[in-house]
## 1
Amino acid sequence: MKSFDIHAIDEIIHGRLRLGIMAYLIGAGSADFNTLKQHLETTDGNLSVHLRKLEDARYVSIEKSFKDRKPRTEVRLTDEGRKAFISYLDSLTKLISQ
Amino acid sequence: MKSFDIHAIDEIIHGRLRLGIMAYLIGAGSADFNTLKQHLETTDGNLSVHLRKLEDARYVSIEKSFKDRKPRTEVRLTDEGRKAFISYLDSLTKLISQ
């Protein structure tokens, strides 16, 4: 039997920037685009790409609106995202505590 | 001040297969190529590529020899690799426990 499964680690979450996004959202629940950009010290383009990946996996939902006539992008962790993140942490813990 | 530094996560270790290699070696100290290949369920080519990256970073040392006329490749965690892995775990823990 194999006790050691790196394939159990969810690559969608494991990417460093996406991991940063998920780790932020697991605490905050939701955040706007600029807050995330600032926290993760990244660019608009890079953040957009990785948010799209998380959205495609249904780990986050993204809602665009206007506030004081300015566009606003709100990113929210979904229930599925929360479960996936917990499962990711579980796999990671198993891997590194062998 | 920023409490959230994804850039502190060592990308050399963070790659899933390399993380699997490092996690195995932190426990075992050393392993031969075939043992690693079996544990990580990967191919010769893939394992070689990632071992080379870890060797270039001086996180592992690789020694080729013959045993019973068969080539044998021994992979050993270096002191530097051990320190880097501990530091990686530390950064990861900080990131996910915000």
Note: Helices of chain B lie at 11-14, 16-28, 33-40, 44-56, 79-96.
## 2
Amino acid sequence: MPEIYTQNISGCMADMIGDDGLTGDALEMARTAAWDVWSAMRADIAEGGFPAVSIAQQSDDLAAVRDAAARLSTHCDTVAVIGVGGSSLGAEALCALGPTPPVDVRFLNNPDPETVARFKASVDFARVGLVMVSKSGGTAETLTLAMTLMPALIDMRGGDAVADYSVVIVEPGDNPIGRLAARWGVPVIEHPVDIGGRYSALTAVGLLPAALAGLDIAAVRAGAVEALETNLAGKSVDDVPAALGAAVSLALLQSQGARMSVLMPYADALAPFARWYRQLWAESVGKNGFGTTPIDALGSVDQHSQLQLYLDGPRDKMFTIVTQQLDGRGDRVSPELATFAGAAYLAGQTTGDLLAAEQEATIESLCAHGRPVRRIEVPRVDEAAIGALMVHFMLETVTAAFMLGIDPFDQPAVDDGKERARQRLAEAAGSAGGVAA
Amino acid sequence: MPEIYTQNISGCMADMIGDDGLTGDALEMARTAAWDVWSAMRADIAEGGFPAVSIAQQSDDLAAVRDAAARLSTHCDTVAVIGVGGSSLGAEALCALGPTPPVDVRFLNNPDPETVARFKASVDFARVGLVMVSKSGGTAETLTLAMTLMPALIDMRGGDAVADYSVVIVEPGDNPIGRLAARWGVPVIEHPVDIGGRYSALTAVGLLPAALAGLDIAAVRAGAVEALETNLAGKSVDDVPAALGAAVSLALLQSQGARMSVLMPYADALAPFARWYRQLWAESVGKNGFGTTPIDALGSVDQHSQLQLYLDGPRDKMFTIVTQQLDGRGDRVSPELATFAGAAYLAGQTTGDLLAAEQEATIESLCAHGRPVRRIEVPRVDEAAIGALMVHFMLETVTAAFMLGIDPFDQPAVDDGKERARQRLAEAAGSAGGVAA
């Protein structure tokens, strides 16, 4: 059986790409630091001390998720997932893998009036269900969408129906979303208290939407467990892909000024995964003036958009290309037609052959231009693969943050913006007088 | 009547945001350089020397676009636009504004076998039309998708039907896509020879998909013309928003190390526009080791993903927030419900009120953290606004490139990757022997 995923960092090294790569010495310091951090965390992780990943080893909580999905699927053609940031991005990443979803899962992650209007106009509102997700239960965007859409559904179908058509995922305790759930008898699935939003993809937050979209959620967890075990089993930093990845990232930042980290999967279905990673890395590592900026890209699309800059612009990035086995997959170009068109090199090739050639060509081209590139390969983009990738990047992110002396689990700066928005609204409500009366 | 768009750079200045902003002196040098470049280009642009923008002043070419759209709309429920990079991103940006499209316009911009399979499974293939776009006529991804999908359509409906169901947009002359069009009698709209792919949004490349999606394409052009005239009318750099924007960008790069440029509209419908900008800027300015890295973001979504990094990470970015007038738009939260939930600050507020408060709060928060931010405001995100924004950013990009001594119209480095992919395929075809025979 092939490994669940593999990592190859040779394209980050000076002996492969020249002076812009890492020397053995430059990497060695970071390897040592990464191993120290990993060694200190390892036993704790193995004993469940990082619940965001060790929850993958559970299975007794999946029945509740499947039951909720089955109930919603019975009553709904469309389910809107109302949540922002970590309450949405992991679920979006997973749902992108559902080829023929039994339920149309939509994400309402922005209080944009135009988006809400289009959503309502594009669905049979009498067959819409809601999954409302907020860890704290007080997220302004989620609350506003919930407090406008739930009453609209109740107006149409009566108060009792909302209980059948909705689910709330929230921490235990008294909070606004919890109160709304209690008011209308909406079933609640508990958001684990010890798992932060951006680390919640393997909980019900990710898995309930995934189940609605038709994914095999046990396979997601199984892939996650396999990646976790691979990392935990490593006897040196070279055998712990997450720790080695963290070491390479920080060594490239420190010795080569690679202050941006581009994640570029060669699979449309992983485009939302790259945006999930973007939040994970940015909020976990970007603080106190530290951090690198994550950038999501997509192969082969961004060869025609960003590759010029990547190859020939400033030398300030590292690249992670996520590849899959594509040869022979997809529709085949007729040799006669390709020859007629004057594109003989495409004769007999499939779409997958082309995409496979492009992912190899991009890696080669980055190396030839002295741009550090690592490759992460999965056999095929499926449930197990995305579970594994999520665990890899959660472990890598936490390792990198601790190497920098940064707390990977807080996000102190965003509260400033939230408070400013809240004040503006409170002042507007006050000055408007009658509106809020 | 309000202006078509306004730009406010005060949040980039030291007297507003402190030491991380520009001093008057630092901006003055860039202003002078921008004015020199602009003055040299201005007369030429006014006389049609920058056809990507001056094409907006034409209207005689719109009838052919409308005719093609009408023909496809009659025969098709779904139209797949096959094109990559500049042959896709402008059209995607425009189509995002179509709220209730008469035809379901899809973009096939990647030879991903899984995507193609899902596309076929999700449509009535007998009612699918194709718009195939490649300036050179030789783009490998476009060719491969065209050479697999066109034969499939012909198998189903017979050879004559393709002429009714398809359009090709390509430069004149002998090239692979042109040969395929000739073979099956597919109508061709000429891609202007003097407009590069990433500058083609205001040509048929952008406007045919837009017309299919139900947009008022004359209004797109009218907004573009208004923005062009605004810029051409300026008597000093302060009255030429595109030149001033270029000056601020480069001054922030040079004096403050702002090597990333984040474009963050507060409108879901502008998310694809930000990706269009990302190509425009990256391919035009990112060469010879120069350039800044464009990053697309989305308000309010990325407040819950990237804002922590933006406020508290390294000081290496400038921000452009695109705002619109949102107050009072959208569904309103019942005061009674908000009070019951314990979120009185949302009482009587609409979704638009919340989004409006958030866009202001983000700008304030960036300023308070000393992060340079400019604001570009449109009255409302509509056809005229996006036409205007496209002209603004095309003019700004070209001005910035010339200030750096860079040719904004080539992309020399991407050919390396293309050649490598082509060689791999040719070798594979050779070694496979019989496959291509």
Note: Chain B has 18 helices and ten strands.
